[in-house]
Specification:
By secondary structure, the protein is of the alpha+beta class. Helix content is about 25%, strand content about 25%. A hairpin with a 2-residue loop joins strand 37 and strand 38. Helix 7 runs antiparallel to helix 8. The longest helix has about 40 residues. The relative contact order is 0.07.
Length: about 1250
């Protein structure tokens, strides 16, 4: 099945590789997690074979709802079709919408949910136990009471085992799969604060808790817990630490329960795997057959070739950035020991001494620090054959570098060779190396090619050696039991805790080759790639790695039990049913048709055709339609049928310069793709009479647009200037052009001035072309190109309106077009509205306009921005016919008033196109600001009766708008009071005494800062439209600098009643104890010693009072302006209560009345401010829909004679089928046990619901599992 053909260079190994016939799966947004799992299931031949044997039953499900059927289609397509497959139909069978393809999920979570859905579909079929036979295992959750000896055993089914990598609480780290399994099965002592409550002992006692594997599945899925919660930052993080795993896994020792001590001993003394991918990197093969001489010869013969091969392989991996070699001789072994090993230190000391004695140089960095870490025997006493030195060291031994470190007994030989080389060099000091010839270089290249071929052959050789070694180890492990597993799938997660990507490495059991499945890309890889999936070696400097290289590591492993009787290594195509093949073929035809339709739509493009200042849009196919077909459409669209299509043609058209360009003569039948005509291009339609002939384009002919000066030019664009076109030859001189223009426009040659626009915004606006030195120069030398716009004028007189613009210089005024462009550059068009004619409706008009902001700015005035604001107002006043003393100018309806009459429009930031809102009224002077005054009044109890309780509780004052007037803010507050009272009397007929009122700052329905009479009101930060509330007092009052105005209310926790608001004037530096005496007078029913107080911030609801911070007042020496209340400004609200009263629990009705829901909403809005990117995770669900026969339908069989007696039974049977939908979701116990392709998903409980498939049936069933 997995035949290979020669292909391109492999992107993953850098060598010319064979391209795999295994095909990928399309990623529909964020479905890489799904693709990785489906490819692993497809390459599980046992599952694929059993799935093909499943027969679809249309009486149970529809095809589009059947998950197994859609899986069959995907698997059949992967096996039959030489193209990537799509999972669109499978996603639809899950009951997911289009957005689900872009949701990021965890692969282990998806595996569990998919298996549950498949088990439900397989119910009642021969495949009912398919998944259980392959993936289901059983473990026993054991608990032993050390006091009474009671044992509790609970068996639990599992499809995968989640293994811990790092646990900060127990300070444990598992750097290998065996350690993780051992600690998973180890026992835990429940003692101390973590004692177990024994029902028999009726008390907490010491106990031991653990897990025991009872049954192992044929396909063992192991999941690493690489996602956890960092308790220092409370953020989800990914653990990228290195975790090694074997190619061959012996699970026999794990089929019993271990204590924690036994786990450590098991891992330390009895390593479970003897051949690991890391051993392949190091060339470490150990055979215990001490007497096998042939084996020794094999080792010596293959050592050099293996080391050379492995060195090249590592170099390829390092160049691709997939492996980081730490130092030059770092070696990774299964068991590491510290460098303090006595035997190792003694050897280092001896070697250092010998090398220095012979004049050598000792380099500790190049020495393998773990040389004797795994063996207590000396190298010459090792059993069998072995080469336990690193690749780098073997390379050093071959090349014999200066600082090489050799095995014991080799250093003397190395020193002698160095002395010999030094003597030869001393005898021939003048000898030079000959230059390398061309033939030598070519020979070197050929040798390199041959070496690469040898390396590729060596790769296959060593793959065979590994396979043979695995077979030997499998036989050895089989002596312990049947549970020996071979690694065949590595599901890899690349990325972080919140974003990432899944891909997988899978072994094809038919060929023994490994492949990388990355969505649609599938490539054959070397088995050495497995090393790159271990993860990064943990570092003390950083807890969690962030580099892309370090974040790609194994997340889930799949092992298959080695059993020749049940293992399936190939699945023939004959197992695929003919119906399934026909379905795949139909899908391919459908996809081909859709692809053709998509290509047709992609080839559709818009083109514009311009004719006589008009343009139309046409849709054409760039690969099929021709220029002639578009011409036919254009002639019909512009109504030129009478002219005849032979008198029309399409040309390229320059939209900017409005000129025709190249022709397409002889290319009318070419497609737009051939003509390189791209979307949105504009073509020009050219016409002629029957007697005329179309002229081919002359490269020397250019079209110029000529603008002749005239008076009253307001806007300088082509629509207003209406330029005329003339055709000239660019080989002509400026003199020829001037003669032509002089004749056509009747301007004397010596009085003609020709100019063009000058680029840039600094300096002059136009550049004169008709100067003396240009007269004899050709137009192309003067850069007069096709489409250029030129400006002509009679220079014998100045601009007639020059007196209106005294700020223009004489040099500019002498050139009329320069004057026009200078004025245009500074010209501003200001729009304004027509104000109300009635001056008496000043306030009413303003409030009405604010409610309806759709003001029509139908008037406009054109002014120079170098004029003053006063000049603008004069022009507007003339147009409106209203005096300046009766108009108020504002920057928009809600903007500030414009009062700076002496500033220029530019200085006053009045720009071109600005809209001024004008209303009738008295304008304010430059030192004045327009302020709004409101009369604040307390809310009466009668008014509160018409409101709900929650609304009346939160209201402070009601505000009545009085007047808006300009105020000189450089006066004292008292002077402003007098002025405001006078204006209020005149406008509102309300008489107020300035000595018996307060000025307060308004904040909605609250009153805040108090304005003191002696302070200049500008110090309170006055601005246009500021709102000031007026409080009417019964008598004159005096408030000192240290006084503040606060609001006070009382609350009874037993009755939940609150009193109306009171205003108090207190000293901000009063103590809390002094404040309690003041409150005791206001609320005599509360004893001063029992008084507690709280401060309310912003919004207020009665239900929030129990959650506020209450502070006692009596005998407290803190100031009001300090902790805990910080009363530093006016208008704050305080509540007082009796602390001896017990709070009563509210009824549901009271919670609703007091605004409980509104308070929770306000809390949510406040707490969520500034928090972005926080999303609620939801459970993954797969909906399994089944048809269900109506239970009443069978009752109708044979009852034809008594239909009239059926009554409601007959009526119910009108719908023959209903839908049975089961929603599966998985559950999780921890915050971050798994992660998705861009982050983890939380899972909820399993939900089961029914949904009617009959659109006419109103019934919906809810069916629960028993």
């Amino acid at each position: 099945m997995a035949e290979d053909t020669k292909g391109d260079t492999n992107l993953y190994t850098g060598d010319p590789q064979e391209v795999s016939l295994h095909k990928g799966l399309a990623n529909h947004g964020a479905t890489c997690y799904m693709n990785s799992l489906l490819q692993s299931m497809f390459m599980t031949k046992e599952f694929r074979k059993a799935l093909y044997e499943w027969k679809f039953d249309d009486t149970v499900q529809n095809k589009e709802d059947s998950i197994p059927y859609q899986l069959q289609k995907i698997f059949a397509r992967l096996q039959l079709v030489d193209d990537a497959a799509t999972t669109t139909d499978l996603i639809k069978s899950f009951g997911w919408d289009q957005n689900a393809s872009f949701e990021q999920n965890d692969i282990s979570e998806f595996c569990r949910v998919l298996f549950e859905a498949l088990n439900t579909t397989f119910e009642g079929t021969p495949q009912a136990s398919l998944l259980d036979n392959l993936y289901n295992g059983i473990y026993s959750d054991t608990l032993h009471c050390t006091a009474c000896g009671y044992d509790s055993n609970k068996e639990v089914n599992f499809n995968d085992i989640s293994l811990t990598i790092k646990d900060d609480f127990s300070n444990s780290f598992n750097d290998s799969l065996e350690k993780a399994l051992g600690h998973y099965l180890g026992t835990e002592k429940l003692e101390g604060d973590n004692q177990y409550f024994c029902s028999r002992c009726d008390k907490k006692v010491d106990a031991t808790k653990g897990f025991k594997l009872v049954k192992l599945p044929k396909i063992l899925c192991l999941n690493f817990k690489r996602f956890t919660l960092d308790y220092t930052t409370f953020q989800r993080v990914k653990i990228n630490d290195k975790v090694t795993f074997p190619l061959l896994l012996n699970m026999n020792p794990f089929l019993r329960e271990y204590s924690s001590e036994e786990v450590e001993k098991l891992i330390e003394d009895n390593p479970l795997s003897k051949v690991r991918p890391s051993d392949l990197r190091l060339g470490k093969f150990v055979r215990d057959d001490e007497d096998d001489k042939d084996g020794q010869e094999i080792s010596n013969d293959t050592s050099k070739r293996y080391n050379q091969f492995m060195e090249n392989e590592l170099k390829n991996l390092e160049d691709r950035g997939e492996m980081q070699v730490e130092g030059q001789t770092t070696i990774s072994r299964h068991k590491e020991k510290e460098q303090t090993d006595k035997q190792h230190q003694a050897y280092l000391k001896k070697m250092k001494k010998n090398i220095k004695k012979r004049g050598g140089r000792f380099n500790r960095k190049n020495l393998n620090s773990n040389f004797f870490a795994n063996s207590k025997k000396k190298p010459n006493e090792a059993k069998g054959w072995a080469f336990d030195f690193s690749i780098q060291e073997s390379a050093h031994l071959v090349e014999k570098p200066k600082n090489a470190v050799c095995l014991p007994g080799e250093e003397e030989k190395l020193v002698e060779e160095r002395k010999k080389q030094a003597d030869e060099k001393a005898q021939n000091p003048q000898e030079e190396q000959p230059n390398e010839s061309k033939e030598t270089k070519e020979d070197t290249k050929e040798n390199e090619k041959e070496e690469k071929k040898i390396d590729r052959k060596s790769k296959d050789e060593w793959a065979d050696i590994v396979t043979q070694k695995n077979l030997e180890l499998a036989d050895e492990y089989k002596k312990e039991g049947d549970f020996v597993y071979e690694l065949f799938a590595i599901l890899i997660h690349s990325g972080g805790a919140h974003a990432g990507h899944y891909y997988t490495y899978i072994k094809d059991f038919e060929t023994g080759d490994w492949y990388k499945f990355n969505d649609v890309m599938v490539h054959k890889i070397s088995f050495l790639e497995i090393i790159t999936t271990f993860g990064q070696k943990p570092s003390k400097k950083r807890r969690y790695s962030s580099s892309i290289q370090a974040r790609s590591n194994a997340y889930m492993l799949m092992y298959r039990q080695i059993d020749p009787d049940t293992n399936v290594n190939s699945v023939p195509k004959s197992l695929i049913s003919q119906e399934l093949k026909d379905e795949v073929e139909a899908d391919l035809k459908k996809e081909k048709k859709q692809l053709e339709e998509k290509e047709r739509k992609d080839n559709q493009m818009q083109l514009k055709v311009a004719f006589n200042g008009d343009s139309r849009v046409f849709w054409v196919n760039r690969k099929e339609d021709t220029l002639q077909s578009l011409l036919v459409q254009a002639v019909t669209e512009f109504g030129l049928e009478d002219l005849g299509i032979e008198n029309c043609r399409l040309r390229a058209f320059n939209v900017v310069n409005d000129v025709m360009q190249e022709t397409y003569t002889g290319k009318e039948q070419e497609t737009f793709e051939v003509l390189h005509i791209f979307p949105l291009k504009t073509l020009g339609l050219e016409t002629k009479t029957a007697e005329e002939e179309f002229q081919e384009i002359d490269p020397n002919k250019i079209t110029l647009k000529v603008n002749a000066w005239r008076r009253n030019i307001s806007i300088l664009d082509d629509d207003n200037l209406m330029p005329q076109k003339i055709i000239v030859n660019k080989e002509e001189t400026m003199e020829d052009l001037m003669n032509k223009i002089s004749t056509e426009y009747n301007i004397a040659f010596d009085k003609l001035r020709i100019s063009k626009r000058r680029a840039g915004s600094v300096g002059k606006n136009v550049e004169e072309l008709s100067i003396e030195k240009n007269i004899k120069r050709k137009l192309k030398i003067l850069r007069i190109n096709d489409g250029l716009t030129i400006f002509i004028e009679d220079k014998s007189f100045e601009h007639p309106d020059i007196d209106k613009y005294p700020f223009l210089s004489k040099e500019i005024a002498a050139n009329k077009w320069e004057t026009e462009f200078e004025l245009n550059r500074n010209r501003s068009v200001i729009k304004f509205n027509i104000p109300s004619e009635s001056i008496d409706q000043d306030v009413d008009n303003d409030s009405k306009d604010k409610k309806d902001p759709s003001i029509e700015y139908g008037k406009s005035v054109v002014v120079d921005k170098r004029l003053t604001v006063f000049d603008l107002k004069v022009e507007v006043s003339k147009q409106l016919g209203i005096g300046l003393d009766k108009l108020i100018f504002r920057r928009g309806i809600h903007g500030t008033e414009i009062k700076e009459n002496d500033l220029t429009l530019k200085q006053a930031s009045i720009y071109n196109g600005m809209c001024l809102y004008i209303r009738t009224g008295i304008p304010s002077c430059e030192n004045e600001k327009r302020l709004k005054f409101f009369l604040s009044e307390p809310i009466s109890e009668k008014e509160k009766e018409d409101m709900d309780i929650a609304t009346s509780d939160s209201l402070y004052y009601k505000m009545r708008e009085l007047i808006e007037i300009p105020v000189n803010t450089h006066q004292t507050t008292y002077k402003v009071k007098e002025f405001a009272c006078q204006k209020i009397k005149e406008s509102c007929d309300i008489e107020l005494d300035p000595t018996q009122i307060r000025f307060r700052e308004r904040a909605n329905d609250r009153l805040t800062k108090y304005y003191r009479d002696e302070v200049v009101i500008e110090q309170y930060r006055m601005y246009e439209g500021k709102q000031i509330a007026i409080q009417s007092l019964p008598a004159q009052e005096v408030i000192d600098q240290d006084d503040i105005i606060i609001m006070i209310r009382s609350w009874n926790p037993e009755t939940w009643q609150i009193t109306p608001m009171k205003e108090l004037v207190v000293k901000r530096y009063s103590t809390l104890d002094e404040f309690s005496h003041i409150l005791a007078k206001e609320y005599p029913d509360i004893q001063r010693e029992n008084m507690e107080c709280c401060k309310i911030m912003s919004y207020f609801f009665r239900v929030q009072l129990p959650y506020e911070k209450w502070y006692g007042l009596a005998n407290q020496e803190d100031f009001l302006a300090s902790n805990p209340f910080y009363l530093s400004t006016d208008g704050l609200l305080l509540f007082v209560k009796d602390k001896t009263l017990v709070e009563r629990e509210l009824t549901e009705e009271e919670k609703k009345e007091y605004g409980c829901q509104e308070y929770e909403n306000a809390i949510f809005v406040t707490s969520s401010k500034g928090k972005r990117g926080v999303f609620k995770e939801k459970a993954m669900k797969i909906n399994v829909k089944k048809k269900k026969k109506d239970p009443f339908a069978d009752a109708l069989i044979g009852m034809e004679d008594s239909k009239e007696d059926l009554g409601p039974l007959k009526a119910h049977s009108t719908g023959s089928t209903t839908g049975l939908e089961r929603e599966f979701s998985s559950t999780k116990d921890t915050f971050c046990s798994t992660a998705s392709s861009s982050g983890s998903k939380f899972l909820s409980d399993v939900k089961v619901q029914g949904e009617s498939e009959n659109p006419e049936s109103p019934t919906t069933e809810k069916i629960e599992d028993s």
